[in-house]
Amino acid sequence: MIDHIAIPVSDYERSKDFYKSALAPLDYVLIIEPSISGAGFGSDNNPDFWIQKSSNIAPIHVALSSKDRATVDVFHS
User: Fold this and answer.
1) How buried is residue 49: exposed, middle or buried, by Cβ count under 10 Å (0-12/13-18/19+)?
2) What is the pTM of this model?
3) Cβ distance 44 to 31 under 8 Å?
4) Closest CA to 52 of 34, 37, 33, 36
5) What is the pLDDT of residues 32-71, one digit of tens each?
6) How many other CB atoms are there within 10 angstroms of residue 20's CB atom?
7) Are the C-beta atoms of 53 and 38 separated by less than 8 Å?
8) What angle do CA 1, 10, 55 make, to 5 degrees?
9) Could you give all domains of the chain from N- to C-terminal order, each with its CATH number?
């Protein structure tokens, strides 16, 4: 089982703002930001989705689950 995942981002502040908005419909919030280049998002005080500033960016696939189709639609909008 995966406990958490960290994805590299080239523009940390822009990515942090994007994920704050994009993950909100899934009840994910910014839980911890231990440095200016890393942030953990999650629900129930469990930061399981992380972003980290990096100059080494490569394609990655992440799939998130949702409560229902309506939440998926909000996420995509």
Assistant:
1) buried
2) 0.81
3) no
4) 37
5) 999 888 999 999 999 999 999 999 888 888 887 888 899 8
6) 14
7) yes
8) 90
9) 5-76 (3.10.180.10)
